[in-house]
Amino acid sequence: MSDPLLIWSYLSQGPLVWLTATLVAYLIGDACFRAANRKSWANPVLVAVILLALLLIGTGTDYATYFEGAQFVHFMLGPATVALGLPLYDNLPLVRKAALPMLAGLLAGSITAVVSALMIARAFGITGSVLASLAPKSTTAPVAIGIAERIGGQPTLTAALVLLTGIFGAIIVTPLLNAMRIRDWRARGFAIGVAAHGIGTARAFQVNQTAGAFSGIGMGLNAVLTAIIAPLALQLFGG
């Protein structure tokens, strides 16, 4: 066991190694985020993904082995998503006052997210399971994976697309909404929740508590609506 490669081969078979690696990667990402004065381009999830990808490539570890060890993090996505129902309860008075604009925004955002992705993919000749994997990309991972499985998509590909959507949304949301001069924290939060699910919601909470609460509401409502829209849109585009 004196050979470092043999030691690594032995340790990498244990599930706690990849769970630990995931947590350490995120802590490093969070430290970079703080060092960058919380700039959106230094998103801690993005940094963690890059570090883990480099680690997996460098050690020759396949995704299945990694996921077997880090699946506890995946399991916690479900309870974390359900817990986001609390902001809806805490902000019921504000939600009632803005119910109609929120409903309009939800319909516009959810339909646009699904239909635009399918239209662009079809324009590039993408069909079958890959096309189905794209449809739920703007909803939270546990729901998106379930939708993908139901409509014939590839859950692993969907998970990757969900992650990329969330990271991209979290990076551009603040400068984009500032440029559009949208000052209402309810509108800002709801928009990012509908478009960029959990990662976007985390970013919203970093900026403003009201924005974070409405982002959680948008994410939860969009998950429900996407489950209805995605299968219908896929049929429309011949998926």
List the helices and strands and how they pair.
Blueprint: H1 4-11, H2 15-35, H3 44-59, H4 63-83, H5 85-90, H6 92-97, H7 99-123, H8 128-134, H9 141-151, H10 155-179, H11 185-207, H12 209-236
Main beta sheet, described? none
Helical segment count: 12
Question: How would you name the oligomeric state of the polypeptide chains in this document?
Answer: single chain
Helix/strand structural class: mainly alpha
Shape descriptor reads globular
Number of domains: 2
The parts where pLDDT drops under 50 for at least 5 residues are: none
Helix content: over 70%
Count of extended strands? 0
Share of residues in strands: under 5%
The string of secondary-structure elements, in order, is HHHHHHHHHHHH
- Cα(first) to Cα(last) distance is 52 Å
The average pLDDT score comes to 83
Rg for CA atoms: 19 Å
Structure description:
The protein is mainly α. The chain folds into 2 domains: 82 residues, no CATH class; 156 residues, no CATH class. Helices cover 82% and strands 0% of the residues. Helix 2 packs across helix 4, helix 9 packs across helix 10 and helix 11 crosses helix 12. It is globular. The N and C termini lie far apart (52 Å). 39% of the residues are buried.
Compact description:
The chain is mainly alpha-helical and 239 residues long. It has twelve helices and no strands. It starts with a helix and ends with a helix.
Question: What would the keywords be for this entry?
Answer:
239 residues
